[in-house]
């Protein structure tokens, strides 16, 4: 899918050529992204739609206001990243995921390529795989998957490669290790007897970690 990031114009654009079936994977993801962004449009951590629809030439266009430096490029420009900076990245993304999940969605593609640096903070973009929790056969595992992918971003930043959750636990220390261990524990050992209570418990744990870490207790 052609994606144009225009830094001068301060928007991100997705353009689909005319003649592509709505059932095509690329175009269906654009429609899913449009739907999700409308559902999350009051969250400041989520891109705002500037334009959606077909232009004169028959192309489907989606323009959003989130176009800044990709995280991978930002890391390349800044060299070795300290644990403190990694925490700032993770806290921004944790807060974003917590809000998205609280609104009844999963992101579905939490990857380093979908993180940008904008105005001193880090944000998730590309909601083409975002899905309503109620449409998941297992909403709890869908949420855990978002957080597992977030933990893998930490590994890529710190060690330069994608690692499994168990590998990350063996390499991390302190609060980074606590976060990854919590995600693994929830995915393997937490029993799901009441989906609503499970989601409430998981969300409370994430919020607790965020508040403790953002207050400098890291």
TrEMBL record:
It holds the Pfam family Pkinase. SUPFAM superfamilies: Protein kinase-like (PK-like). One of its GO terms (molecular function) is ATP binding. Residues 1-218 form the Protein kinase domain. This is Protein kinase domain-containing protein. It comes from Rhizophagus irregularis.
């Amino acid at each position: 899918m052609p994606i144009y990031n225009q830094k001068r114009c301060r928007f991100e654009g997705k353009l689909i050529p005319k003649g592509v079936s709505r059932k095509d994977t690329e175009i269906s993801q654009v429609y899913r992204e449009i739907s999700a962004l409308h559902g999350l449009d009051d969250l400041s951590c989520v891109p705002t739609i500037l334009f959606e629809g077909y232009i004169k030439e028959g192309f489907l266009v989606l323009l959003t206001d989130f176009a800044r430096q990709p995280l991978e490029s930002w890391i390349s420009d800044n060299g070795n990243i300290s644990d403190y900076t990694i925490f700032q990245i993770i806290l921004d993304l944790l807060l974003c995921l917590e809000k998205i999940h609280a609104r009844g969605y999963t992101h579905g593609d939490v990857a380093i390529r979908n993180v940008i640096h904008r105005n001193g903070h880090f944000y998730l973009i590309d909601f083409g795989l975002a899905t309503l929790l109620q449409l998941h056969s297992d909403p709890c595992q869908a949420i855990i998957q978002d957080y597992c992918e977030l933990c893998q971003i930490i590994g890529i930043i710190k060690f330069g490669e994608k690692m499994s959750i168990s590998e990350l636990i063996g390499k991390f220390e302190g609060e980074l290790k606590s976060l990854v261990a919590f995600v693994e524990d929830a995915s393997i050992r937490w029993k799901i007897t009441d989906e609503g209570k499970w989601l409430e418990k998981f969300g409370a744990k994430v919020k607790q970690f965020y508040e403790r870490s953002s207050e400098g207790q890291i």
